[in-house]
Every structure is written in C-alpha cells, then in structure tokens.
C-alpha cells in the first residue's frame, strides 16, 4: 500500500512536466534502444550539422578499438550505424516531422537493422570504459578493488545483449557521443518526488537532449511538455 501511494504521488508529479512516454521492450537493451530512438526522433527538428557532429565524435573509436582485446567486427557495426544515421539525414530532408517519426518507428521494427545499431552502441561504450579505466574504475566494484581488468568487465557486463546498462555505461556512452542525457528516476523511495539525474550536459544547446524514464531494471522514453 505504501509503494502504491508513493508511486501514485510520483506519477502525479511527473504529469505536471511530462506529457507522455513511449514503452520500450523490456530486454537487456532497453537503455540503448530508448536512448538512440529518442535521439533519432529529434533529429528532424535540428539541422543536418548535428548528424555530422555525432559522426565526428565517433572518429577516434576505430583507432582505440584496435588497441584493445575486444571481440566483434568494429567496421561492420560502424558501417551499419553510420548508414542508418545517413538514412535519417536523407529522410528528414524530404519528410514532414510526423512522416519522419512514422518512418523511424517502422524502421525500428526491423529488428536486425536496429540490433546492429544497439550492438555498436554497446561496443562504443566498452571501448570508452576500457580506454578511460581511471575515470570509470570507481564505479565498477572489481576495478575499484584493485583488479584493473576493464576488458573482462566489458566482456561480461557491457557487450552481452542480455546485460542491462549500469550507470557507468550511460556515462561512458554519452561522454563519447556528447549527447545530453537526463534520467527521470521513479525508483520508489520514501520521497514523493521523481529524481532527475543529469548524466551528461552539453554546452551546445542545439544538440537534442534525451530524457528517459527509469524504474528498477528498465528504461522507457519520456516526453516533456512543450
């Protein structure tokens, strides 16, 4: 009963600032799926310079990948990701906002195409954690206890598709992509306020901000009232 009361109070507070949310499948990739979908959905409202900025932010990843002992074909996954971003660029130039968003939804139902996008995001996250171990080791129990094997952590906790994203994954990915991310946390606690965590804030206000709704073990997309 206390849980229900707190949840109702939090949801009521949310409705003051947020108009709707989009449910995302509850698999281990819900963070990556909701993050990239929310970002891509907003591309139609910004100039094509944003896609070029994003792709530029990923340019150093191949060189870093080559220095690491991570599995997978970086170039194949990168090509799938870049190809889809370029498709978005092309579609937004010829479609209305609503038509673009409908196109994106239909594309997201192509599981193989989207699966490669999500695998690439996991790989980028792993590359960043393995490259910047000092920055992230305090957030990873094994590394903080003097076992500096970031590769093992990424092989077990980041790359497998069934593994949920920990907060360190959110930080690593947004550090690379430089995409602002806010997480509205309704993990019920004794307070009746939703907790908003700013994971990454961009100095560039033209970059779309991704806002996700988090409840224990799951992320969905949430939309602010305009």
Automatic annotation (TrEMBL):
- Does Protease count among this protein's keywords? yes
Reaction(s) catalysed by this chain, per the record, are: Thiol-dependent hydrolysis of ester, thioester, amide, peptide and isopeptide bonds formed by the C-terminal Gly of ubiquitin (a 76-residue protein attached to proteins as an intracellular targeting signal)
Query: Its Enzyme Commission number?
Result: 3.4.19.12
> GO molecular function of the protein, one example?
cysteine-type deubiquitinase activity
Q: Name one GO cellular component term.
A: nucleus
Q: Which PANTHER family match?
A: UBIQUITIN THIOLESTERASE PROTEIN OTUB, UBIQUITINYL HYDROLASE 1
Q: Name one Pfam family in it.
A: Peptidase_C65
Protein name per its UniProtKB record: ubiquitinyl hydrolase 1
Q: Which residues form the OTU domain?
A: 19-225
Record the organism: Aegilops tauschii subsp. strangulata (Goatgrass)
């Amino acid at each position: 009963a206390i849980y229900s009361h707190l949840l109702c109070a939090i949801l009521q507070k949310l409705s003051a600032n947020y108009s709707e949310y989009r449910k995302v499948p509850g698999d281990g990739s819900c963070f990556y799926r909701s993050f990239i979908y929310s970002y891509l959905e907003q591309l139609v409202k910004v100039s094509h310079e944003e896609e070029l900025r994003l792709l530029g932010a990923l340019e150093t990843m191949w060189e870093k990948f080559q220095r690491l002992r991570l599995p997978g074909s970086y170039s194949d996954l990168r090509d799938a990701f870049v190809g889809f971003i370029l498709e978005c660029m092309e579609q937004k130039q010829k479609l209305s906002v609503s038509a673009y968003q409908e196109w994106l939804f239909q594309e997201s139902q192509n599981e193989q195409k989207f699966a490669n996008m999500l695998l690439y995001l996991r790989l980028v996250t792993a590359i960043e954690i393995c490259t910047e171990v000092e920055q992230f080791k305090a957030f990873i129990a094994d590394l903080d206890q003097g076992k500096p094997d970031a590769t093992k952590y990424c092989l077990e906790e980041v790359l497998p598709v069934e593994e949920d994203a920990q907060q360190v994954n959110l930080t690593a990915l947004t550090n690379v992509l430089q995409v602002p991310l806010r997480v509205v946390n309704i993990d019920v606690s004794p307070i009746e306020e939703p907790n908003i965590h700013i994971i990454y804030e961009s100095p560039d206000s033209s970059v779309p901000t991704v806002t996700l709704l988090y409840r224990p073990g799951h992320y969905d997309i949430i939309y602010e009232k305009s």
